[in-house]
Each structure stands twice: as structure tokens, then as C-alpha cells.
Amino acid sequence: MPHFTVLYFASAKDAAKAESEKLDWSSGIDAAALTRLLVQLHPELDQVLKTSMFAVNMEYMDQDQSWTVQPGDEVAVIPPVSGG
């Protein structure tokens, strides 16, 4: 079965208790469906995902959420970060 990889950073990594995981791919996984799937797998991600950005294959995705995940994609969950 085709799959895609999710990478977790910062507070997303803490909430998911993982740095990454491979998930089974199915058609129609857009940003909303991905968010629902990740919260179902890791309920602690709920609040983190509300302020996080997604990057697919190292490219930030638009906030309009019109993109979909494809087989083999690498999706990064990037929470807000502060610097100093």
C-alpha cells in the first residue's frame, strides 16, 4: 500500500511522542483530512496543529489548504517558533 511520511518538530514532536511516522496513503488527503487523521492518532496534537504550518516535500503549503498529500510525500508539521 502506498504511504507518506509525517515529520514532527518542536512541540508537535513532543505531542506526538515521535520524530516521524509512515502513514498509509489514500486519495483525497487534504490539509483538513490530514489534521483530523493526526489528531485521531495523537489527540495531544489538537492544540498544536491549530497554530502549525505544513510543509510538503520541503515547501510550505498555502494557508488556503487547497493542496493534497500524494504517495511518497514527506509532510512536516512545523509549530510556531521563537528566536532570540
* Inertia-based shape: globular
Percent of residues in beta strands: 25-35%
Helical run tally: 3
> How would you classify the helix and strand content by structural class?
alpha+beta
Rg measurement, Å: 12 Å
Order of helices and strands: EHEHHEEE
The biggest beta sheet, please?
5 strands, mixed
Question: What ranges have pLDDT less than 50 throughout 5 or more consecutive residues?
Answer: none
Number of strands: 5
Mean pLDDT: 93
Q: Helicity level, as a percent range?
A: 25-40%
The main sheet orders its strands as 2-1-5-3-4
Modified residues (Glycyl adenylate): 84
Subunit structure: Heterotetramer; composed of 2 small (MOCS2A) and 2 large (MOCS2B) subunits.
GO cellular component, one term: molybdopterin synthase complex
Protein name: Molybdopterin synthase sulfur carrier subunit
